[in-house]
Structure formats: C-alpha cells, structure tokens
C-alpha cells in the first residue's frame, strides 16, 4: 500500500511546462534561418557581379587617352550601376545584421525564461521533498 501512497503524492506535483524542446528549432526559428540563408545567397550573388577594379582600370585608361566617347560613357554608366548594386548589398547586409541582433536578443530572453522556469521547478521539488519528509516523519 505504501507504493500507492507514494504514487498518489507524486501526482501532486504541478505540471510546469518543460523546455526540453529548447534545442529543437521552432517554426519561427526555422523561418529566420531560411531567411538568413536566402540573404547570404543574395549577398554572394550580388557580390559576384562586382568587378569594380576592372571597370575602374578601364575608365582610367579611357581618361588617360583624353577622349570622351561612347565607350567611356558606357564605362561610367556601368560603374554607376555597379555602385548602385553595391549600395543594395550594403543595405541588405545592414538589415540582416539588425535581424541577427534581434535574434540573439530573443535567444537571450528565452534563456532567461527557461532559467526562471527551472528555478521554479527546483523550488517546487524542494517543497515537495520537504512535505514528503514531514509526512514520513509523522507516520507511526
């Protein structure tokens, strides 16, 4: 009969949601990870289009020749286009850095919440243990 009594007491522990899935990514985390991968791929594809040194050298050669023609105008336009793409890349990288900061902040908050829940659970277990010990001491 004592095992049943012990079993009855164990059901008195309030259920506190465990965070055993803390290592399992949530749907939101998976979406953020996918978004980050897409941004990284976008950064790499944009970066591969920037051959600025070649353009600048060609433009320098055109300037050295001293003639402004369709070729030098085309080089200037191409260089402007590349600089615009560079600006897009920098803006995209800046936005992803802000996202990473928020993600790290969110992870820190989750860690704090998990720590609080763990401490609550420890307190409940200690309280339960002392209650059981008191009950065992009072039994004849």
UniProtKB/TrEMBL annotation:
Residues 1-51 are annotated as: Disordered. It comes from the Eukaryota. InterPro entries: Med9_plant. Residues 27-44 have a biased composition (Low complexity). Transmembrane segments: none annotated. GO terms for cellular component: mediator complex. Residues 10-26 have a biased composition (Polar residues). PANTHER family: MEDIATOR OF RNA POLYMERASE II TRANSCRIPTION SUBUNIT-RELATED. This is Mediator of RNA polymerase II transcription subunit 9.
